[in-house]
Amino acid sequence: MNEQQLYDLAPALELMAFGLLLALGPLCWVWWRNRGTGPSRRLQALCVLTLFLTFDLVLFGAFTRLTDSGLGCPDWPGCYGTSSPILAHAQISEAQAAMPTGPVTHGKAWVEMIHRYLASTVGVLIIAMTVMSWRQALAARRAGKPELARGALSPWWPTFTLVWVCLQGALGAWTVTWKLFPAIVTLHLLGGTGLLALLSIPASAMSLKQAGQLPAVIGKGLRAALWLSLALVVIQVSLGGWVSTNYAVLACTTFPTCQGSWWPAMDFAQAVQIWRPLGLLKDGSNISFEALTAIHYTHRLMAYVVVIALAGLWAAMRRAPALARQRRMLAFFVVLQVLTGLSNVVLDWPLVAAVLHTGGAAALVTIVVWSLTVTRSGAAAACDLKTAPRPV
């Protein structure tokens, strides 16, 4: 059996066309639901819908990883140089016959390609956001009325988001061509989480402006708590990605102890070797079980810190009535994370719990970014009042 080349751009145009076709559905829905409204309202609706679909993409990406479908098609961007597993049926059948439980099967190929189709759809929607925001900005400039752009999205934000999603696509390609290299897969997960944050900022800000509201004023302490919580959650997402990509979830199958000990045998020197192939160390030897234990247990210890910090944030958010909705959602997803995290350990890593655990982490990042976007500190508000022009 001939080895498939890693990069085969032959189906690239077909995949781009397919992504455009899939994106037409959400785009037409936005236009239909907001017919008769202004361009800012349509752009706001597109931002919210793109955020929702990106969250779905992150969930499906977790499903792809957790079902070992990341190499369901051994090349990129298509599948055996085609745009569909249907067209690659013979090659997939040959690979599956050689290794019935191997990385390439018909089911895994479909999962991998559906993930790529969804990613291309999100990419097209972000291109549409970029084009719409630039059109609004240029129209306001030509009219000599910058106030027309109020409430509209700054064109530089979706432009940066478009660059980000291109980098995310490159990481997706390297995930395949580098054979699930743990550092690349973890960066791909972080890139998806970062994309959610980038989309949640304009979606939240534009929704606030469309409602005719200003950011709520909160204390400096609560703003600091939000920033600290965001940093801790991002660190924990990184650690969780490192656990998942190294298949270290089952290194500890008991709770609260690990392997019957509060401090099991661990090899942190191997655990922090970042740039290495899956299952191997830099010298080519196999990674030890003690290293996998260290990877798992570090994530678990950090989880205690994050849960305590988020519980403190939840309590502090009582002083901000404008964040009541975010506070309820924060409580729900913290509880979800605790339950799914425990399920992964004691129930032998069930697929549903593992996917929900990734989704819960992404939701926590989105909620905290949302809270930061729709608020400002009292000190910043006071500064704006001091610098505002006084009436004559």
From TrEMBL:
Instruction: Give the GO molecular function terms.
Output: metal ion binding; oxidoreductase activity
Which residues are listed as membrane-spanning? 12-31, 43-63, 114-134, 155-174, 180-203, 224-243, 301-317, 329-347, 353-372
Pfam families from the entry?
COX15-CtaA
Report the principal subcellular site.
membrane
Q: How does it sit in the membrane?
A: Multi-pass membrane protein
Q: Name one GO biological process term.
A: heme A biosynthetic process
Where is it located?
Answer: Membrane
Q: Name one GO cellular component term.
A: membrane
Alphabetized, the UniProt keywords read:
Cell membrane, Disulfide bond, Heme biosynthesis, Iron, Membrane, Metal-binding, Oxidoreductase, Transmembrane, Transmembrane helix
Which pathway is it part of? Porphyrin-containing compound metabolism
- What name is this protein filed under? Heme A synthase
Organism name: Comamonas testosteroni (Pseudomonas testosteroni)
Recall the taxonomic lineage recorded for the source organism. Answer: Bacteria, Pseudomonadati, Pseudomonadota, Betaproteobacteria, Burkholderiales
